[in-house]
Amino acid sequence: MNKSTSTQTNPIIYVAMAADLLHAGHINILKFARELADSNNGKVVVGLLTDSAIAQADEAPFLDYEQRKIVLENLTLIDSIIPQESFSYKDNLAKIKPQFIVHGDDWQSGYLSKYRKEVLDFLHAHYPQDLEDKSTHPALVEIPYSSQINALGIKKAMNSLGISTAMRQARLKKLLTLKKPLRILESHSALSALIAQNVYVLKNGVRVEFDGFWSSSLTDSTLRGKPDIEALDLTNRLQSINEIFEVTTKSLIYDADTGGRVEHFIFSVKTLERLGVSAVIIEDKTGLKKNSLLGNEVAQSQESIEEFCAKITAGKRAQVTSDFMIIARIESLILDKGQDDALKRAFAYIEAGADGIMIHSRQKSPSEILSFLRAFRAKDSTTPIVLVPTSFNAITATELADAGANIIIYANHALRASFVAMQEVAQGILEHDRSLEIESKCMSVKEILSLIPGTI
């Protein structure tokens, strides 16, 4: 390669990458960067994406930052490694002012194109030459993307093989340290979990997706035509969880209602942990369980702080791994006992060993939830807070995270949506005495056959 006409001494060739699954595509880019550095008496600097940077736009990395750094440090193609704290290059470019940036040409479209534009804007400001004319100043060098081997393809192949129980279980706790908020979608079957696993949207160049599944006692009961009164025990619900785990890789949080008697809860913790569930949530009510959104319209009573703390402590003693989480759900706001009671219980439950707090409200306005978050975070800045905004649904997950929440659960929407769709189709068939008119409301037979690998 011809030497650049730039007068920069020892120019920096910058390559940003996650390198979670190092493969031939990465080596191809690094070899090109090395040749560029050698021909210009420069050095190759890799901006290694941090764990939190990767998690903001993708799933959590398999290897943490230090592990990935050790792998790259042993490559002679690289001179030095620095952290890149986000998918945006701006901070590192401003800091080290590289002469060349090397990247695969796959980011010319899609959600990464935003960051490509940031790079071009930086280079235009520092090198006003025609950046698209590589013969005059190849400040941005894009090489053909390795379509035959790439991290996305490898991850898809690995996901098709499944995930170990330990890896799935640990993912939730790891994600809590990397991104905020975590978005969790109710999944009552393997099919609904596949939807939650694969659906995503692009917002301002960032991929937004669900981070796991919620196994809801309400939807599990409703799916079987039973009332939401703890009519289904753990054994009845394990089959659905097993089916979800067979076809997905993300974490699952289990709704255990009150947890039952202490002796029963100990058994549940051992079973759920062995299965690979990441967390269990138990609520501080006692007696026959009634849905919280009914509030004081029905007879509901709260368990004493001492007894509920004893249940939490017993559950923590029963678990084997440090990755499994027990989250305490507080019903004080539901039962109109006020914020002071909710806060008193929250700190007592944490002292008893709870790994997180779920605070619930049936108000349409999020004001009492936001007030609780402010008061709680004034004393505790680290314990994860879980919210289920079924009633106060006008506020966004991002806004709740900014107020101090960590996990947002959409607790029954998948089943509620499926009911509406199935009812509409069933009525349409009866109304028209045929299915022609409702076909547009249904997934095509070809699509449903190709949805599950191995069907065709």
UniProtKB/TrEMBL annotation:
Occurrences of domain Cytidyltransferase-like (ranges): 20-116
Pfam families per UniProt: CTP_transf_like (PF01467), PEP_mutase (PF13714)
EC number: 5.4.2.9
Annotated family: Belongs to the isocitrate lyase/PEP mutase superfamily. PEP mutase family.
Record keywords, A-Z: Isomerase, Pyruvate
Protein name, entry field: phosphoenolpyruvate mutase
InterPro entries to which the protein is assigned, alphabetical: Cyt_trans-like, ICL/PEPM, PEnolPyrv_PMutase_core, Pyrv/PenolPyrv_kinase-like_dom, Pyrv_kinase-like_dom_sf, Rossmann-like_a/b/a_fold
Keyword Isomerase: yes
Molecular function via GO: phosphoenolpyruvate mutase activity
Domain of life: Bacteria
CDD domains: ICL_PEPM
Record flagged with keyword Isomerase: yes
Species the sequence originates in: Helicobacter fennelliae MRY12-0050
